[in-house]
TrEMBL record:
The keyword Hydrolase does not apply. Residues 512-533, 723-751 are annotated as: Disordered. GO terms for cellular component: exocyst. GO terms for biological process: exocytosis; Golgi to plasma membrane transport; protein transport. It comes from Brassica carinata. Residues 732-751 have a biased composition (Low complexity). Keywords: Exocytosis, Protein transport, Transport. This is Exocyst component Exo84 C-terminal domain-containing protein. Pfam families: Exo84_C, VPS51_Exo84_N. Belongs to the EXO84 family. Residues 142-352 form the Exocyst component Exo84 C-terminal domain. It comes from the Eukaryota.
Length: 751
C-alpha cells in the first residue's frame, strides 16, 4: 500500500513508466515478428543506426531508473517483512528449545527419577549445580561441579576464544550425557542454565566492548564473530552496525561547521566519515555474515538511515545558505562531492544515490532558479543603458582572447558571459538529472532577453504585452543600425554562442570526443537530439524579434505619422485622370522599400559576417511583410473592385510595374521567396480581375515584358547610383530569372 501511494505521488516516475511502456509495446504484441523487425532495421543507413542506438540507450536509462525507483518505493515494506520473519524464526527456535527441555524433564519424571535430598548441601549452590561428596561422584560429575567455576575464570580474564571453546565442549558433553543417561536430568538442567547464563554475560561484555570508539577494526570483527558464535546472529549484526555508527559519531565531534567555513570542505569531510563507515560496515557484514538476506536487508536499511541523516546535515550547514544566495557552483559542488563518495558504494551493492538526490535535488534546483533569475535581472538592467552598438568582447574577460570573438552590444556581452559562467557550474547537474531543467531554464531566460530586445524597438511598447517587466526602462534603438544590432544579438546567441556553451551538458561519452572534433559547434551539437531541439526553440524565439522588426519597418513604409496610408488605391485609380503623359517609374513606396533594403543589406554585410543566410532571410521577411500586407488589405481592394471609379489601363500598368519591380530587386538581392512570388501573383491576379470587370481586355493594355524589364532595371540603377554596363543593362545573374518568371506567368494567364 505504501509503494502504491509513493507511485501515485510521483508524477515524473509515472510519466517515465508510460514512456517505457510505450517503447516496449511493439515487442509485447502477439503479432511481433522478430525476423521482420531485424530485417527492417538492417536496411537503415548509418545516420538512422546512430539515432536508433541513441534511442535504445535512452530507453535503457529510463528503464533502469524506473526499476530503481520501483525498488526503493517497495523496499521499506520488504525490509520490514524480512525483519519480522527473522524475529519469528528466533521465537520459533526458543520455543523449540523450551519444548525440548520440558520433554526431557517429563521423561525423567515418567521413569521415576528421584533426587536424593540427602546429597544436597544446605542452601542453594552458587552456580546452580548440585555438590556431591568426592567419594560418591564420578569423573563426569566432578567435571560438572567444576565447569561453572572454570567458565567464570575465563570470563573474568576475558579469554574469549577459550571461553567459546569451553562452551562448545560443555554442550558436547551435555549432549552425550543426555544420550547415555550418565547424568541426572536435574544436573543436566543446571549445567544448561549455567552455560546460558554465562553466554549472556559474555555476549553483554562483547557488545559493550564493540561499541567503544577506541575498539580497533580487528578487535571489532573478533568481538562480532565471537558474538555470532554464541548463537545470537541478529544481535551480533545489529551490534556491528551500531559500533560503526558510534565510531563515526565520535569522529564527527571534531567536525564543527561555521558560517565562515567553506561548504565544500565541510561536505567532503563529513562525506568521507559517513560513507567510509558505511563501506567498512558493509565489508564487515559481508565478511562475517555472508550474503544472508536478513542481514543484507538490515545493512541496507541502516545505510539508508545514515545517508538520510547525512543529507540533512549537509542541507542545514552547506546547501541551504548556498541555494538561498543563488550560489549554484557551491551547491552543485557539495552535491557532487557527496554523490561521488556515494557512487563508490555501488560496487558493494549499495545504491544510495536516490536517497541523496531526494534531499539535494530540490535545494540545487532552488540555486539553479536563483542563478537564472540573476542572469535575467542583470541583463535587463544592462539593457536599460545599452546604446545598441556592436563591439568586441570586453578587454580582460576570459572570452576576449578566444577564437570566437563575435561582436555584440553591451547587454548581450553581459548575457553571454553570465551564461558561460553558468555552464561552468552546471556540469555536476548531469549526475542529478538536472541537465534538461538547466536547458529549459536558460531557454526561459533567453526568451526573456528577446522580449527586452523587442521592447527596444520603437513602437513596440504600446503593441506588445511583456509579462514580468512592469515599468522597466529599456534604451530605444532609434536607427536602423541599432535595430539590426538587436537582431545580431539574438541570432548570434541562439545560433552559435548558447549551443556552444550548452555542449558542456552533453553526456560524458560525447564529451570525451570534444577535443578531437574540429567541426563547427552547431554541427557537433546536432549529435544530441535534446540539444538540437533546444537550439530549434531558441531560433524560433529569434523569429519573434524578426517579426516585430519587419512589422515595424513595413508600417513605417505604409503609414505616415498621422496615420495616412502611402499605399492606397487612389495612387492607381487617379493616374488615369492625369493624361497619357506619364513618366513610368516604380511607385514611391516601392522606391523607398528598395532603398531601405539596400541600406540594410549594406549594414548587415558587416554585422552578420559569416551569417549571411540570416541577413538574407531578414530582408526576405521584410519584403514579404509589405507585399502580404497589400495582398490582404481589404479596404484597398474594396476601392479597386467596388469603388466609385474603376481601375484604368494606366493604373493597371503601374500596379503591374510595381510588382515586377519588387520581383526584380528581390531576385537581384537573392531574397526572392515562394511567399513573395505567391503574394505578387495574388495582387496582380486581383488587379487583372478588377480591370476585366470593366469589360476591357487587360492583356491588350499591358506592354510587352521587355518594356517592364527595362524600366525596372533602369529604376534599380538610378536608385542605387550604379553605372550601366556596355549594353545598357545591369549585369545580374538573377534579374533574367525574374523577367522570365513574370513573362511566363503572364503568357499563361496566371496574372
Amino acid at each position: 500500500m505504501a509503494a502504491k501511494t509513493a507511485r501515485s505521488k510521483s508524477t515524473p516516475t509515472k510519466e517515465n513508466g508510460v514512456r517505457v511502456e510505450e517503447g516496449l509495446s511493439l515487442f509485447k504484441s502477439d503479432k511481433f515478428d522478430a525476423d521482420a523487425y531485424v530485417q527492417s532495421k538492417c536496411s537503415i543507413n548509418e545516420k538512422d543506426i546512430k539515432q536508433l542506438c541513441s534511442y535504445l540507450l535512452d530507453l535503457k536509462k529510463a528503464s533502469a531508473e524506473e526499476m530503481r525507483r520501483s525498488v526503493y518505493a517497495n523496499y521499506p515494506a520488504f525490509i520490514r517483512t524480512s525483519k519480522e520473519i527473522s524475529d519469528l524464526e528466533g521465537e520459533l527456535s526458543s520455543i523449540r528449545n523450551l519444548l525440548s527441555t520440558q520433554a526431557t524433564l517429563i521423561h525423567g519424571l515418567a521413569n521415576g527419577v528421584n533426587i536424593d535430598h540427602d546429597k544436597v548441601s544446605d542452601g542453594s549452590p552458587a552456580n546452580g549445580l548440585l555438590n556431591f561428596e568426592d567419594n560418591d561422584l564420578s569423573d563426569l560429575e566432578k567435571w560438572a561441579a567444576e565447569y561453572p567455576d572454570q567458565l567464570d575464570a575465563l570470563l573474568a580474564e576475558r579469554r574469549v576464544d577459550e571461553a567459546l571453546a569451553a562452551f562448545d565442549e560443555g554442550e558436547i558433553l551435555i549432549s552425550q550425557a543426555n544420550e547415555n543417561h550418565t547424568l541426572s536430568s536435574s544436573l543436566l538442567s543446571s549445567l544448561q542454565f549455567a552455560i546460558a547464563e554465562r553466554k549472556q554475560k559474555l555476549a553483554d561484555q562483547l557488545a559493550k566492548a564493540a561499541c567503544q570508539p577506541s575498539t580497533r577494526g580487528g578487535e571489532l570483527r573478533s568481538a562480532i564473530t565471537a558474538l555470532k558464535r554464541l548463537g545470537d546472529g541478529p544481535r551480533a549484526h545489529t551490534v556491528l552496525l551500531d559500533a560503526h555508527f558510534q565510531r563515526y559519531q565520535y569522529n564527527m565531534q571534531s567536525l564543527r561547521p561555521s558560517s565562515t567555513s567553506y561548504g565544500g570542505a565541510y561536505t567532503a569531510a563529513l562525506s568521507q566519515l559517513v560513507f567510509s563507515a558505511i563501506s567498512q560496515a558493509s565489508s564487515d557484514s559481508l565478511g562475517i555474515f555472508g550474503k544472508e538476506p536478513a542481514y543484507s536487508s538490515e545493512l541496507v536499511t541502516w545505510a539508508t538511515k545514515q545517508t538520510e541523516a547525512f543529507s540533512l546535515l549537509v542541507k542545514r550547514h552547506a546547501l541551504a545558505s548556498s541555494a538561498a544566495a543563488g550560489g549554484l557552483r557551491a551547491a552543485a559542488e557539495c552535491a557532487q562531492i557527496a554523490l561521488g563518495h556515494c557512487s563508490l558504494l555501488e560496487a558493494r551493492g549499495l545504491s544510495l544515490g536516490p536517497v541523496l538526490l531526494k534531499h539535494f535535488k530540490p535545494i540545487v534546483e532552488q540555486a539553479l532558479e536563483a542563478n537564472l533569475k540573476r542572469i535575467e535581472e542583470n541583463t535587463a538592467a544592462m539593457a536599460a543603458a545599452d546604446n545598441w552598438v556592436l563591439t568586441n568582447p570586453p578587454a580582460g574577460s576570459r572570452h576576449a582572447s578566444t577564437a570566437f570573438q563575435n561582436k555584440l552590444t553591451s547587454s548581450a556581452h553581459r548575457f553571454n558571459l553570465m551564461v558561460q559562467d553558468f555552464f561552468e557550474d552546471v556540469g555536476p547537474l548531469l549526475s542529478m538529472q538536472l541537465g534538461s531543467k538547466a536547458l529549459e531554464g536558460l531557454f526561459r531566460v533567453f526568451n526573456s532577453y528577446v522580449d527586452v530586445l523587442v521592447r527596444a524597438l520603437p513602437g513596440s511598447m504600446e503593441e506588445e504585452n511583456f509579462e514580468g517587466f512592469g515599468n522597466m526602462i529599456v534604451q530605444m534603438a532609434e536607427t536602423e543600425a541599432q535595430q539590426l544590432a538587436l537582431l545580431a544579438n539574438a541570432s548570434l546567441l541562439a545560433d552559435e554562442l548558447l549551443p556552444r556553451a550548452a555542449m558542456k551538458l552533453a553526456p560524458l561519452d560525447q564529451a570525451s570526443h570534444r577535443t578531437d572534433d574540429l567541426r563547427r559547434p552547431s554541427d557537433r551539437q546536432n549529435r544530441n537530439p535534446e540539444q538540437r531541439e533546444w537550439k530549434r526553440r531558441l531560433l524560433s524565439t529569434v523569429d519573434k524579434l524578426k517579426d516585430a522588426f519587419c512589422r515595424q519597418h513595413a508600417l513605417d513604409l505604409i503609414f505616415t505619422e498621422e496615420g495616412d496610408s502611402h499605399l492606397s488605391a487612389d495612387m492607381y485609380i487617379n493616374i488615369d485622370g492625369n493624361g497619357d503623359d506619364v513618366d513610368w517609374f516604380p511607385s514611391l513606396i516601392f522606391q523607398e522599400l528598395y532603398a531601405k533594403l539596400n541600406r540594410m543589406a549594406s549594414l548587415a554585410a558587416d554585422m552578420f559576417e559569416g551569417r549571411e543566410r540570416f541577413a538574407t532571410s531578414l530582408l526576405m521577411r521584410l519584403t514579404e511583410t509589405v507585399i502580404l500586407w497589400l495582398s490582404g488589405d481589404q479596404s484597398f481592394w474594396d476601392d479597386i473592385e467596388e469603388g466609385p471609379r474603376p481601375l484604368g489601363p494606366l493604373g493597371l500598368r503601374q500596379l503591374y510595374l510595381d510588382m515586377k519591380f519588387v520581383l526584380c530587386f528581390a531576385s537581384q538581392g537573392r531574397y526572392l521567396s515562394r511567399n513573395l512570388n505567391r503574394g505578387t501573383n495574388e495582387i496582380i491576379t486581383k488587379a487583372l480581375a478588377a480591370f476585366s470587370a470593366t469589360g476591357l481586355d487587360p492583356y491588350s493594355e499591358l506592354p510587352e515584358d521587355d518594356w517592364f524589364n527595362e524600366i525596372c532595371l533602369d529604376g534599380m540603377e538610378r536608385l542605387s547610383g550604379k553605372a550601366k554596363g556596355n549594353n545598357g543593362e545591369v549585369h545580374s545573374p538573377t534579374a533574367s530569372v525574374s523577367a522570365q518568371s513574370v513573362s511566363s506567368a503572364r503568357s499563361h494567364g496566371s496574372y
